[in-house]
Amino acid sequence: MKNLINKIGVLTVVFSLFLVSCETVDFGDENVNPNSPTSKKTDALLTNAMTWMPNIVSPVTPNYYVQTVSDVTYTSYSRYDTEEWSWNGYYTGPLKDLKEILDLNEKFPGEVTGGGSNGNQKAAAHIMMAYYYLNITDRWGYAPYSEALMGSENTAPKFDSVEAIYTSLLSNLDAAIGMMDNGGLNGDILFGGNMNGWKVMANTIKMRIALRMADVDSSTAASVFNSAYNSGVIGQGGDLHYPYLTSDAFDNPWQDRFQTRYDFVVSELFIDHLKATGDPRLPYMADGTAISNGTEYVGLEYGLENPGILETLLSGIDGRIIYDGTQQGGWIATYAEVCFAMAEANQRGWTTVGDTLTWLKLGIQSSCERWGVPSASAASFAASATLGSNPMETIAMAKWTDMFLQGYEAWTEWRRLDFPVLSPPAAAITGTGVPVRNGYGGLVPTQNKASYDAAVAAQGPDNQDTKLWWDTK
Asked: pTM higher than 0.85, yes or no?
């Protein structure tokens, strides 16, 4: 009997297994390789690439170059103590992520649809890459581009010229606009997937490139400029500010810089200019001195080795920037910039849309309102503007004022337009003048010697005094 029971038990188990084998069984994720997902998260790559933008829109150093900010504590920075700057963060960070988006959309188009349509993903990646590469070549000049981001396939990429990079970026931006469709885009913290916003950003970058080229290839620059404007750039009310949050993980870097120490104040040069012109933006850009209960504005002479003055006697950067920063201190591109660009284009004879003075006034008014000046006061101040004896100088000074804390863009516009006239501090540590270029990182000459040597031979000495291709004056 015992043997019979055992046989029946065995047969029952076998029969049950047979029945199970005929059914569809869900084993969950047991057979899924976590290291080879079937869905590629390109939306996360796009977000991550965008979160690197504060390094460009809210830096400290280039504000020293245009002398709107002075050091009051650690003064070596404003005296150009660093001549060699590494670009590794660009290539191992956002550019790598954006290249991955492009590669995945080409190789696995059906597996990346969670990030939006293939066309929109590629368009956004190209535009963001153009934004970063433009900043790279405007800082260092010759830089890895056509052979960059190839990993182990090419560990010593050549350095492309500024002109070659510009030409390629313009082509890629046009192509990106053509890729856009109605398929959506996820992971987009700038425009929420609105592709018209991306189109405007692409055209604004094209407009910037065109102005850079103005003194070296005016005919091409004019054509590119008008094409960008006609295709659609930032309009009134369309200012683009990086979306900082109040949480520590995603707040404005200016806030973090003032949490534990007080290193920077507004320069004497900048405050004196605002005072002399009766500029209503003064109390929105700087704080009144503590000793005067906020009623007096005093800047610090730029580039002093030992200032020897109490911070309470000086005007710091406006508190709305350093203690909040969600609305200021992180501008990517603005309507005021477009207005000043149109003023310059009129002055150069590139366009007949409006006129130089009208665009100048529109830019000043928009800038004042963006900084917080009431509309009536902004309009009144803008209405008093004149072109003066040197309209290009007037436009340059308007840009310099407007781009307070917009470091890299302000530095590029100063190098291009040459106003205001600036001199290096007497106690400068490196260079012979105000920096017009960043030197290559210290390891570049040994890690990529052939490309480095070729770039130096073509561009000039690897120091901060060597002017870039477009900086002809």
From this structure: yes
